[in-house]
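hiii so um. not sure if this is the right channel but i have a protein structure encoded as tokens and i wanna go backwards to a sequence. like what aa goes where. can anyone help
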């Protein structure tokens, strides 16, 4: 639905450029019309290049975390060319015992670094047990928002082991140590 709105807005800009050409300034309207056409071609070209060259992965510093601790997952965006990528929208999902800063873990970025970029995602271990972090979907969209492509190859899940906090009993009796 969003891309249909963007198509309509782009078509409206083309119509305004044609009206400008006819009623106000022929050369100015033609310049704006050609500029819009070139922007669309550039956006389409970068979208097609990005479809072939962008890769996404997730990485963690440690897979063992204590309950209540904050930790960071890195979203690694890679590309094969020097040119910047199109928009990359990544939706990350976690098991219920892990929470993020915001309710929906959806990130929209452009990979502009020479060899790729890294996005740090802050998470918190809420409950003990095994947890998983995975990429649910990756959607590429062009600069004008008219074309989208869902990537089929998703990175593998990351498993997190969340340990309970066991208090230090110090010099307690043997019974209290075994209970702890």
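sure thing!! here u go:
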């Amino acid at each position: 639905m969003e891309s249909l709105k963007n198509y309509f807005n782009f078509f409206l800009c083309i119509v305004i450029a044609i009206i400008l050409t006819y009623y106000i300034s022929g050369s100015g309207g033609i310049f704006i019309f050609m500029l819009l056409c070139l922007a669309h071609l550039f956006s389409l070209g970068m979208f097609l290049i990005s479809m072939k060259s962008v890769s996404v992965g997730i990485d963690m510093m440690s897979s063992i975390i204590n309950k209540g601790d904050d930790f960071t997952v890195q979203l690694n965006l890679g590309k094969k060319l020097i040119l910047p990528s199109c928009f990359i929208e990544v939706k990350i999902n976690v098991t219920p015992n892990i929470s993020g800063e915001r309710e929906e873990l959806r990130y929209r970025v452009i990979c502009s670094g020479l060899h790729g970029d890294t996005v740090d995602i802050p998470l918190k271990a809420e409950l003990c047990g095994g947890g998983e972090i995975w990429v649910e979907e990756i959607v590429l969209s062009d600069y004008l928002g008219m074309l989208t492509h869902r990537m089929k190859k998703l990175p593998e899940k990351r498993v997190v082991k969340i340990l309970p906090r066991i208090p230090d009993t110090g010099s307690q009796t043997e019974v209290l140590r075994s209970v702890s």
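oh and The CA atoms of residues 68 and 125 lie 5 Å apart.
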